[in-house]
From TrEMBL:
The chain crosses the membrane at residues 78-97. It is an enzyme of class 2 (transferase). GO terms for biological process: hexose biosynthetic process. Its EC number is 2.8.2.-. Belongs to the sulfotransferase 1 family. GO terms for molecular function: N-acetylgalactosamine 4-sulfate 6-O-sulfotransferase activity. Keywords: Membrane, Transferase, Transmembrane, Transmembrane helix. InterPro entries: CS_Sulfotransferase, P-loop_NTPase, Sulfotransferase_dom. This is Sulfotransferase. Residues 253-517 form the Sulfotransferase domain.
């Protein structure tokens, strides 16, 4: 833009400025006027900035100014356009991220996300008015009530796809081909004078060799090194010497506490280990059958070297030393008595975690694992005993969430994660069998909460394909909490343990509960009533089947 130095009037590009008396007076001569001749003028381009009165300078007429104004105008419009596009992009990204979480996307997700309807309706068997005393909803909670009808449609779809089909059990030769080393280490017969499955194995190392130098549990975990330091010191003293050779006693567990997580397995473990005839592995949860033998420490960290079966057997050396002392005693040698000490193992992943199969075994056409954990345990220990502790799957899932979630824990966040997990599970069962989805590693890692762990009957039926029903004891945490003495007696009877003195029994049954909810988690309160109703609907058909299999309606968890 241009200004007259004489009168500070804004000039248009082609303005002759005839009204200025300094430039166009009555005696004005264009030839003599220095202003009109262009002398003593300083050109100034103000670039749209407002000029101060004392700083005004005369601007020379320049025909290129019109083009500069045009380009400046275009530059301004271009900047505005770019800014608008950036804002629009941010809004769209926010929409996509928010819509994906709440099921509002217009484009369907590969996991079959569905949009939630906005029409509220009453819940099956449990109305919102009945829950007001239990939980006072906030404004945010009211919006979650609207989710229920649409999530109910997802659950109905899942329910319609449920089929409990008996799996085909693999034969022994197929198992041998998959794990030849394991079958070369573990014999098919055990010592007849020991209640616990044990055998003697020749030790070829010398007195200075470290028998635990390559044990993966000792190498990868600092907290286990103290245990192995002690085992190194006493190892040579517990070798059995016969005809110039050295033998070590090897043992497998007599019984397994196989599940489920957040169902009281730690408490059961702590009480059972107080029994004088019960020993456990040096580590409470080795997770060898499900993870370590595949080289999995944490799935998110990828795979490490596979833990050989020898590393697993090392965990029972402490118990094996005590069993050997009994076997070498005069009572066993001379009177024909046998060892009654039994060993247990309490990895709560054993019942359900078969996620690693897809990386090591040939995939089947149906997407189901061709081999499961129980196939191999049964191949070596057909007489093993299994203990399962279960809990209302709805409460188990919330406890699981509170235990494993690291940040931003809340009842509202739990609700959102449940909704997302249900949508993912629905997407799977639309294309695959129930068993394929339950053992689907990709799906299980994608779900924000572990819905599949609460599908107890799916896992139990698969264990019953290889083990007899009288080899499996199924308990409820609710019964254990209300009458601990009764449940512990059931366990003692199941394991055929000897009688206890009143003092021993009191020590076992009156000890405080183990692994209870952390104080900071207790302060979060219960889950939302809507979330509980959703989960009750989801788990209902599975609980119904479980109650039928066990002939016990308590496993319906109608009142817990």
């Amino acid at each position: 833009m241009r200004y007259c130095i004489n009168c500070c009037i804004h000039l248009l590009p082609n303005d002759l400025h005839s009204q200025c008396f300094r430039c166009r007076g009555p005696d004005h001569n264009n030839q003599k006027c220095p202003v009109c001749r262009g002398e003593n003028k300083i050109p100034l381009y103000t670039d749209r900035r407002q000029m101060k009165w004392l700083a005004v300078l005369e601007v020379r007429t320049d025909h290129c100014e019109s083009w500069n104004g045009f380009f400046c105008l275009r530059k301004g419009k271009l900047c505005s356009l770019m800014f608008g596009l950036i804002i629009m992009t941010l809004v769209m990204v926010s929409y996509i991220l928010t819509g994906a979480k709440h099921g509002l996307l217009l484009i369907p997700s590969p996991f079959h996300y569905g949009a939630f309807a906005s029409n509220p309706s009453l819940m099956d068997n449990e109305s919102l008015s009945d829950m007001k005393d239990y939980y006072q909803p906030s404004k945010m909670n009211i919006s979650y009530v609207k989710d229920y009808p649409s999530i109910k449609l997802i659950i109905d779809t899942i329910t319609s796809k449920i089929e409990f089909i008996t799996r085909q059990r693999p034969d022994l030769e197929e198992l041998r081909k998959q794990e030849p080393h394991m079958f070369s280490v573990i014999p098919n017969k055990f010592l007849p004078n020991s209640k616990n499955p044990c055998w003697y194995e020749e030790y070829r190392g010398n007195a200075t060799a470290d028998p635990y130098a390559t044990n993966s549990y000792a190498l990868y975990s600092k907290r286990f090194r103290i245990i192995f330091d002690y085992l190194r010191k006493v190892f040579w003293n517990h070798l059995y010497h016969y005809k110039g050779k050295h033998y070590r006693l090897r043992c497998l567990p007599h019984f397994y506490i196989i599940g489920q997580p957040k169902c009281g397995t730690t408490d059961l473990y702590d009480r059972l280990r107080l029994h004088p005839d019960v020993r456990f592995s040096a580590i409470k949860e080795p997770h060898w059958w499900t993870r370590k033998r595949f080289g999995i420490i944490r799935l998110r960290d990828g795979f490490h070297d596979r833990y050989p079966v020898e590393d697993y057997l090392d965990l029972f050396d402490l118990a094996a030393h005590q069993i050997q002392s009994v076997l070498q005693s005069d009572a066993v040698k001379e009177r024909g008595k046998r060892n009654n000490i039994i060993i247990g193992e309490a990895s709560a992943s054993t019942m359900w975690d078969n996620n690693a199969w897809i990386f090591f075994y040939d995939n089947s056409t149906e997407g189901e694992p061709p081999f499961l954990i129980q196939d191999f345990i049964h191949a070596f220990q057909p007489n093993a005993k299994l203990i399962i502790m279960l809990r209302d799957p709805v409460e188990r899932l919330y406890s699981d969430y509170l235990y494993f979630a690291s940040a931003n824990k809340s009842a509202e966040d739990f609700h959102e994660k449940v909704a997302e997990s249900l949508q993912l599970f629905e997407g799977c069962v639309l294309d695959f069998s129930l068993r394929a989805c339950v053992y689907n590693n990709t799906l299980n890692n994608a779900m924000p909460v572990r819905l599949q762990v609460g599908l107890y009957v799916v896992y139990l039926l698969d264990w019953l394909t290889v083990f007899n029903k009288d080899q499996i004891l199924v308990l409820r945490l609710e019964d254990h909490a209300s009458n601990m003495r009764y449940t512990m007696h059931m366990v003692f009877q199941f394991l055929d343990l000897g009688p206890l003195s009143e003092k021993q029994e009191a020590l076992i049954t009156k000890s405080p509960a183990s692994n209870t909810r952390r104080p900071e988690d207790r302060s979060l309160g219960p889950m939302l009533p809507t979330t509980k109703a959703i989960l009750r609907d989801f788990y209902r058909p599975f609980n119904t089947k479980l109650a039928q299999v066990l002939f016990d309606d308590a496993f319906l968890w109608k009142r817990t």
